[in-house]
Amino acid sequence: MSEIIVPSPADFHVHLRQGKMATLVTPHVRNGGFSLAYVMPNLKPPVTTTAQALAYKAELESIDSSVEYLMTLYLSPDLTPEEVVKAKEAGIAGVKSYPRGVTTNSDGGIESYEMYYPVFEAMQRVDMVLNLHGEVPSDAKTNTHILNAEPKFLTHLHALHKAFPRLRIVLEHATTRAAVDAVKACGPTVACTITAHHLELTVDDWAGQSFNFCKPVAKYPDDREALRQVIRDGHPRFFLGSDSAPHPVHSKSTSTPTQGCAAGIYTSPILLPLVAHLLESFDALDKLEGFVSTFGRCFYRRELSAENTSNVVLRKIDGHVVEGKYGADEESVVPFWAGKEINWKIVTN
């Protein structure tokens, strides 16, 4: 197979930041082959109201109007059932939950879910999606750390699904076999995103290598195999959410005795060729369309029609080297696999 046609790829988890960084990275969504971006709300300050989400959407559209931006709200005590209804009427797609302190700009994250049950009931009623960052905070007293934070979260997933069986829930950026099995065990209203980089990396790749460090961290080879296998299986509730997370190069390449490097891997500019390359490497290239387009669009009810489909053409090519960085000066970002070769290239977008 030397050429692939992919209908309207959709990235159901991406960070587009704000200010100068947003201006730099937002066009990379389309450059990387994608016409839909499900945008995360962890800005400073976080996007907690409908008005903020719509203003952010307008900012992104002013940078690149060729992409459909699905907006989200940040789950916080300020979010009310009334605001959920307002958000739904305005076209806001989902609400993102971040456990406190586990990832970038999550200091205002949740500590327990019960207080949000009225919000979840409203979301279930109006059919908004709940997006879960599936980790619990580290705690030495309970032996909780970055390698087991995801498995320890899964009881919360099952409890939420049981309490709100009609609420559409997405477990974001799964990294473990336990997470894959947990989502499989749930009903049709629970889905899961998988990143491109977690299909490649294991714990050995980020230990000592800051540009491969993200949250949740890549786990063991057996966990990676579980992610790959569920894609080979063509499971319709597992689809791409890149979690592409740009950080200025200085925040990725430096750390101090009191401050670690930023957590995040940037894949947007190379995303579709990268996914094709990776799926081909583990004999799943025939599942590309489902993984990057059909499955996620079906779950989010953004199905394609003849009128709204734009095909992206990928061609097999040797020697296509990933750029070393994008941007200039202190705002430049280094992409995943910088300087490495990818065997696919976009020829029509």
TrEMBL record:
InterPro entries referenced in this protein's UniProt entry, alphabetically: Amidohydro-rel, DHOdimr, Dihydroorotase_CS, Metal_Hydrolase
Keyword Protease: no
SUPFAM superfamilies listed in its UniProt record: Metallo-dependent hydrolases
Matches recorded under Pfam families: Amidohydro_1
One Gene Ontology biological process: 'de novo' pyrimidine nucleobase biosynthetic process
Pathway: Pyrimidine metabolism; UMP biosynthesis via de novo pathway; (S)-dihydroorotate from bicarbonate: step 3/3
Keywords: Hydrolase, Metal-binding, Pyrimidine biosynthesis, Zinc
Domain Amidohydrolase-related: 4-252
EC number: 3.5.2.3
GO cellular component: cytoplasm
MF term (GO), any: dihydroorotase activity
Gene3D superfamilies linked to this entry: Metal-dependent hydrolases
PANTHER family the record matches: DIHYDROOROTASE
Similarity section: Belongs to the metallo-dependent hydrolases superfamily. DHOase family. Class II DHOase subfamily.
Designated name of the protein: dihydroorotase
